[in-house]
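#structure-requests
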Amino acid sequence: MAVSPRNAPRIPVVKLLVWCLVIGLLLALFNASPEGVYAWAGETGKAIFNWLWEFGQNIGPYILMGAMLVVPIWAVSYLWKLFKSR
């Protein structure tokens, strides 16, 4: 059943507009500007990225050391199962 533009559901669009208005009013109540919200989101994203980068730098050597042992064992096990099933 195809939906024509004439009988397309309009309720989700109206709900979305109402929610945008409510959130916009709440942000205005707290004196938040769109520029401030964008700046906060950018700073938060940058902070999360920096934290993940530092975490990766601290834990990365241990992952590599573990991989030196785990990957060959996994590869042998995988090949063993592959040849055993044939």
